[in-house]
Design brief:
five-stranded antiparallel sheet, 20 strands, seven-stranded mixed sheet, about 20% helix, alpha+beta, single chain
Length: about 350
């Protein structure tokens, strides 16, 4: 074999083995093997905890996104895997796969998306040493077919610069994260007095994540996620509305659906954008009237009617039934879209250029 062929074969061998040799993290116990604060940025734990709490995991362990990576939500962007850090993407006519990466603070604020990483993630990173700052990343593989988009692989890794000025991902400290570990992380709060707190998690895997960083995370997370009952006007009798601090409070009540005895309300549940339809009891043929109508979610009130978010809509007749309220039949749909400033719900009728109901922007 010629020397140049031998060299190419050796490089190919390194590419293949780097993907095959990635360690798997199956549970919190496996985190003991990671040198947080040493070879691995300790802030990776905070980023991974945030990610685990901003995805959907169903009873079959299927992971769904609550944001749109192609719009660079939270600074997410396409990862080309040019250094062959991960396995090559599968080829299929009916299914497409793509890698995405998030965690780059310099891409977090962009003009393409109103969704940015919260301050407890980004500002916490500023408390680290210079060589730790902005290194930690999450890579996930998105699987898209004609009816759904799901995540089938998740990794934590770090980004670093080389002596030649080239930025790369570090194969030695790249780990594949299991769905089980993501589920376990969702069980840990950031409230120090609770049994399953991040402090207890830190102590379980025996590493030294800085108390100041966890304290910063605690103060901001609790501010956003303190549960309380919400009582206002017509919705008092519901008694089950959950809001989590002022960022998650509905700015206004329901709005009228023009020309019909029905109302539309935007609300939040578990951090996701949801909509309620209130149908007057006397509006008995509403399913026939709304047969070709749907509710769409928008990231901004400035979007035109057809620019509602992909897979973030539902036919009006397919909303789920809830208990009646003061002469109204109540129906609900919760999307996988994370709530954020500017989010709006609209009621749309096929054939009409404009929506016939717009909620106030969040």
């Amino acid at each position: 074999m010629a020397p140049e062929d031998l060299a190419r074969s050796f490089i190919l061998f390194l590419y293949v083995t780097s993907a095959l040799a990635i360690q798997h993290l199956h549970s919190i116990r496996d985190l003991r093997n990671i040198d947080f604060g040493g070879a691995v940025p300790k802030h990776s734990l905070v980023l991974l905890h945030w990610f685990a709490n901003n995805i959907d995991i169903d009873n079959n362990d299927v992971i769904s996104l609550t944001f749109e990576p192609n719009q660079e939500d939270y600074g997410t962007h396409h990862y080309g895997n040019y250094e062959r850090l991960l396995n090559n993407l599968p080829h299929s006519r009916s299914v497409t796969y793509r890698y995405y990466t998030l965690g780059n603070l310099y891409r977090n604020n962009n003009l393409h998306s109103p969704l940015t990483l919260p301050s407890y993630v980004t500002q916490g990173n500023h408390n680290l040493r210079d060589d730790d700052e902005n290194r930690d990343r999450i890579i996930f593989r998105l699987r898209r077919d004609t009816s759904s988009e799901t995540i089938d692989e998740v990794y934590i890794t770090q980004h670093y610069g080389t002596a030649l000025g080239i930025s790369q991902y570090d194969p030695e400290y790249t780990y594949r994260v299991s769905t089980n570990l993501l589920r376990e992380l969702r069980e840990f709060s950031v409230e120090g007095h609770q049994r399953n707190s991040l402090w207890e998690l830190r102590d379980q895997f025996g590493n030294h994540v800085d108390d100041n960083l966890l304290g910063y995370l605690n103060r901001n997370w609790v501010r956003l996620h303190r549960e309380k009952k919400m009582f206002c006007g017509l919705w008092t009798t519901m008694g089950s509305e959950i809001c989590r601090g002022p960022e998650f409070e509905n700015p206004k009540g329901a709005v009228c659906i023009e020309g019909y005895d029905a109302l539309l309300q935007l609300f939040v549940e578990e951090g996701k954008s949801c909509a309620r339809l209130y149908i007057k009891n006397t509006f008995t043929d509403w399913k026939k009237q709304f047969e070709d109508s749907w509710v769409g979610f928008y990231t901004s009130a400035n979007k035109v009617t057809h620019e509602y978010e992909t897979w973030k809509w539902q036919w009006a007749t397919k909303f789920s039934r809830e208990p009646n309220v003061d002469g109204y039949n109540v129906y609900v749909y919760c999307s996988r879209m994370a709530i954020a400033p500017g989010v709006q719900a609209r009621f749309i009728v096929r054939g009409k250029e404009n929506a016939i109901a717009h909620t106030a922007a969040w």
